[in-house]
Amino acid sequence: MVDVWVGPAPRSWAYLFAMGVLGVFIGALLFLEPALAIRLLVYSLGIVAVVVAVLFFAGAAFFSRGGGPLVPLLLAIGALVLAIGVLALLNPGLVGGFVAVIAAALLIVGGLGMAGTAVFQRASLAGRVLSAGGGVLLAVLGLLFLFHAAFTASLVVRLVGIFLMAAGVVSLAGSLVRWWRERRAQPRYIDAELVEH
């Protein structure tokens, strides 16, 4: 019996190079223009919400033949999602503020919950301290989002931009190393003529 492992093929240097260029470009955009990046994100969420609303309406039309309580629920959810999508496209600042408040609440509750459960973990002391510290940092980030949403959102977007630029540079370096290895691994051919005797 023969075992065969079929896994993903190794990516070529061109793929790594393209991902590196894309990462550096998007990271630079996020770092240099965080307000534009946030606005584009809210517009994208608005477009996605409109598409999801259309899918809810299509689902309601599909299930309307059989009747039942699912149709009004799908119509109500579709109308709500459509309203949020249109509002995001017409007034992105309002939706951005709404998302910031929800993110702040989630960060505060999640951070305090993480810090609280760190006390009862069966991990080492260092693990509990790190978990509690991470929870406190999340809660502080949530409070910053709550009281200084524009500054905190800009800071977070810039940090994501720095991360993407660093990942892009690493990917570019990896693509150059892989290109060099592939180039060295190619067989060298000798110019020769075949002479028959």
Tell me briefly what this model is:
With 197 residues, the protein is mainly alpha-helical. It has one domain.
Annotation keywords:
197 residues; mainly alpha; 81% helix
Describe this structure in words.
The protein has 197 residues and is mainly α. It has 6 helices and no strands. It has helices at 13-32, 34-63, 70-90, 92-119, 125-147, 149-185. Helix 4 (92-119) packs antiparallel against helix 5 (125-147). The two termini are 49 Å apart.
Largest sheet: none
| Sheet/helix structural class | mainly alpha
Q: Ends: how far apart? A: 49 Å
Overall number of strands? 0
The percent range for strand residues is: under 5%
**pLDDT < 50 runs, ≥5 residues:** none
Helix content: over 70%
The domain tally reads 1
Shape: extended
Average pLDDT for all residues: 85
Return Rg in Å: 26 Å
Tell me the number of helical segments per DSSP (H or I, 4 or more residues long).
6
Give helix and strand order, one letter per element, not per position: HHHHHH
